[in-house]
Design a protein that fits this description.
alpha/beta, Rossmann fold, eight-stranded mixed β-sheet, 9 helices
Length: 222
Amino acid sequence: MGKDKLRKFAAIKTFDNVLEPVRGESFPIKGNWRKDFFKNDNPIVVELGCGKGEYSVGMGKMFPDVNYIGVDIKGNRIFIGAKQAIEEKIYNVGFLRTRIDFIEAYFGPEEVDEIWLTFSDPQPNKPRKRLSSPLFIHRYRNFLKKGGRVHVKTDSDLLFDYTLEQIESEGYEPLDIRTDLYATLATESDAEKSQIFSIQTYYEKLFSSKGHIIKYACFKIH
């Protein structure tokens, strides 16, 4: 492992806005994120597979009355977003370093209002590992509030089409489906949505520069 990665891993252990739970050990923040971590009663939005935290930090800056938690296993990536949040005094953004497979161990029932899946790995050979698969949706139900929303933003036709199939076959409620996100935004006058989607992750910028079309789906699970 390179010295820079080791430096970042060591640094996030000192950051107040990063939690690194140990699998199998007690996690007292579960069910108490508002009270003990954010110290407010605002809604909680979780970004799964947050990478460098561009979305969590960007949304946190736009909406100070909402709490955002970026989740990823890559500590060297989390370091970037967590450091930015500290330097810019963005107190409504936190990070959780863990595998998403264990996500329900760290949130209490109905503790989370919305989930964002931003440019998740499409897992071409492992459909069950896709973050919009029934396996993961079952996990989300353990902590997402009733009627809570799941947002999927991707350049992958495979993942997007699979997600639409799940919405139909599992009876989720589709709220907003866009096969070409930015083409549809250009025809609307919804300032808030334009503001939200102006945030672009590293991967979105990379894929967009290669001509990939960005797709978006928002749905409720019951």
